Amino acid sequence: MRTIVVLIVLFMTDSTFAQSDFPDFLQGTWKMENRETYEHWDRLNDHTLKGFSYRVAAGEIKVSEYLNISRRGDQITYTAEVLNQNSGEGISFDLTESDSMYVFENLRHDFPKKIVYRKLSETELWVSVSDGGQKGFAYKLLRQHAEKGGSDPAAVSNPNYDKALGQYQPPGEGRQINYCGTFGQK
Fold first, then answer.
1. Using alpha carbons only, what angle is made at residue 145 by residues 52 and 155, rounded to the nearest 5 degrees?
2. pTM (2 decimals)?
3. What are the boundaries of each domain within the chain?
4. Measuring CA to CA, which of 5, 48, 56, 91 is 20 to 30 A from 172?
5. Which tens digit of pLDDT belongs to each residue from 108-138?
6. Helical H runs in the chain?
7. Which DSSP string corresponds to 55-76?
8. For 167-179, what is each residue's pLDDT tens digit?
């Protein structure tokens, strides 16, 4: 009996630590330092984050890619669906490291092969996108402050935020929302 209790405690401890490698800290809206480029992430459940990258130009939001981070079993996968690339198909990257940074890799893809999110603080992220070698780029993302008194912890001061777009699911994953890649004032 004592052995069973010990095994149950070890199993519960192990599964708790395994779940801590999911990048929940991405929830919310992040702005690229010195640019009008953003990433927004929503947590749909314990194993799925949906997001999108967009730019703000001339008062309009122009979506450039849809993002998904999901856990299936022990594997965490980052999928990016860049508009007007790869015939509309998402490219997946597997999590290979999650100690002080989240490293997603797909060595079969031409570029990028590696996407890294490193949490610098509660309000800053460092993102690098590379071929795993010398070719690539990096940038800092700054968390956009939530509106005071709001009930949604991921809500930010963005008058053009579209919750349906934040919950977009690419074709083949359920409902489909067809966006042209641009949406503006309501």
1. 55
2. 0.72
3. 25-102+146-180
4. 56
5. 999 999 999 999 999 999 999 999 999 999 9
6. 2-19, 163-166
7. EEETTEEEEEEEEEEEEETTEE
8. 555 544 443 333 3
